[in-house]
Amino acid sequence: MNKLANGPNYKVKPRRRREGKTNYYKRYVYVISKQTRFIVRITNKYVIVQIAKIDPKGDIMIASAHSAELAKKFGWKGDENNTPAAYLTGYLAGLRAIKRGVTECVADIGLHVPSKGNRVFYVIKGAIDAGLKIPIGDISIENDRIKGEHIAKYAEKLKSENSDLYSKLFSRYLQRGLNPENLPSHFEEILNKIKSSGG
Predict the structure, then answer these.
(1) For residue 169, what are the contacts with CB-CB under 8 A and spacing of at least 6?
(2) What is the pLDDT of residues 128-183, one digit of tens each?
(3) What CATH architecture applies to the domain 20-197?
(4) Residue 37 DSSP SS3
(5) Cα distance between residue 94 and residue 63, in whole Å
(6) Environment class of 13 (CB within 10 Å of its CB; exposed 0-12, middle 13-18, buried 19+)
(7) Residues 161 and 179: beta-carbon distance below 8 Å
(8) Could you tell me the pTM of the whole model?
(9) Least crowded by CB within 10 Å, which of 10, 38, 92, 181?
(10) DSSP alpha helix (H) spans, the chain
(11) CB 151: neighbour CB atoms within 10 A?
């Protein structure tokens, strides 16, 4: 047993910090900066983006985008949490933010680790390409991955080597009527639809 945990000076961390949901130091920095935040959260199924303004009574949501919208509103047939979906969700959120008068934000990636290739950076890249200013530095974006070319190449290789595994791994794509090898062209189609919609 850890004796320090029972000592008189032991301080229990806030519940959301214990649950791995909130970094209160980062939260404090955002609050005192008074800057609009571009909040990115990625779950096992979806990509969620919110543009929020700090307010003493609680955050004020200015705009948001959810990757589930890609399928419902724009006909996206791929996964809702892969790299292309992350970029598209960020792009959609960026357009909506600009539409509501937001031109610049700071990135809030929560407890996501800012490692090379992390999908949160593809979300941010999407918003930047939509016209939103987000100071982020070098985020090591690979343009091929934005369109899902890495997925298409893997699918093509797997299809020739193990058709059963191909059908299993890409069952959702196939059920929706998309051959994963065609993901890059499908990505371009959906991106154009988002651009045409204006957010």
Answers:
(1) 158
(2) 999 999 998 777 789 999 999 999 999 999 999 999 999 999 999 999 999 999 99
(3) 2-Layer Sandwich (3.30)
(4) strand
(5) 9
(6) exposed
(7) no
(8) 0.86
(9) 10
(10) 15-18, 24-33, 68-74, 83-99, 119-129, 143-147, 149-161, 163-169, 171-175, 183-197
(11) 22
Which residue type is seen at 31?
A: V
Parse the chain into domains and list their residue ranges: 20-197
Each residue of 91-113: pLDDT tens digit? 999 999 999 999 999 998 876 77
* Total residue count of the chain as it appears in this document: 199
Residue with tokens 């598209």: 88
What's the pLDDT at 114? 72
Contact between 150 and 180 under an 8 Å Cβ cutoff? The reply is no
Residue 63: which H helix or E strand, with range?
Answer: strand 60-66
Long-range CB pairs of 78-82 (<8 Å, 24+ gap) are: 78/148, 78/151, 78/173, 78/178, 78/180, 78/183, 78/186, 78/187, 79/172, 79/173, 80/45, 80/46, 80/47, 81/42, 81/43, 81/44, 81/45, 81/46, 81/47, 81/119, 82/119, 82/148, 82/151
Q: Which amino acid is present at 121?
A: F
C-alpha span between 177 and 78 (Å, rounded):
10
